[in-house]
Amino acid sequence: MLRESLHPHWLNAGAVCLNFNLRRTSRSVTQYYDEALKPTGVKVTQFTILIAIATHTNAGGGSITDIARLAMVDRTTLTRSVKILENENFISIDKAQPGNKKCVKITQAGLRKLNEVYPYWFQAQRALARKLTPPKTRELRHLLVEIKNSAEALHAI
C-alpha cells in the first residue's frame, strides 16, 4: 500500500533536509521573539523591518527593494508588513523623484516604537544567547552567514 510505495531514502529526508530544519527552527525562534515582544504590539518581523527602514532613513530613505534586500525579506511579505507599519504611522512612503520608486522612511512615531520595543527584544536576545551559550551563539551566527552565502552562490550558478 502507501508505505510500500515510499522510497526508503525519502523516509529520513525531513530529518536531514537543511531547508526543512532551518524553516522549523526559524518558526520556533520567531514564535519565541513574538511572544517576548507581545506587550509592545509589534512582531519581530516588523521590528526587523523598522530597523532596516531606520538604517535607510539616516541615508535619506530607501526603496521597497532596498529594504527587502537589507531585511532579507521577500517583497510580498515586506509589502504586507510595510502596510501595517504605515497604517500605524511608524513609517512614511513617498514617491521619489524621478520615476515611480517609493521612498520609505521611519517617522518620529516609528522611532518611539523602536525605542519601546528594543528593551523587550534585547532581553529575549540575551536570554536565548545565554541559553545557547555565547560561544555557540557566535558559531551559529558565522554558520548562518556561511549557509546564506553558500545558498546564494549555488543559486547564482
In short:
It contains 8 helices and 2 strands, in the order H-H-H-H-H-H-E-E-H-H. With 157 residues, the protein is mainly alpha-helical. Strand 1 and strand 2 form a beta hairpin.
Key features?
157 residues, mainly alpha, two-stranded antiparallel sheet, 8 helices, 2 strands, globular
- Number of separate strands: 2
Number of helices: 8
Question: Nearest-angstrom radius of gyration?
Answer: 19 Å
Helix content: over 70%
Find the structural class using helix and strand composition.
mainly alpha
Can you write the helix and strand succession as a string?
HHHHHHEEHH
Largest sheet: 2 strands, antiparallel
State the distance separating the first and last CA atoms.
40 Å
Mean pLDDT level: 88
Low-confidence stretches: none
Into which percentage range does the β-strand content fall?
A: 5-15%
Form type: globular
Spatial order of strands in the largest sheet: 1-2
Structural commentary:
By secondary structure, this protein is mainly alpha-helical. The protein contains 8 helices and 2 strands. The chain has helices spanning 2-5, 13-16, 18-37, 44-57, 64-71, 75-87, 108-132, 134-156, and strands spanning 91-95, 102-106. The longest helix has 25 residues, at 108-132. It is globular and about 55 Å long. The mean pLDDT is 88.
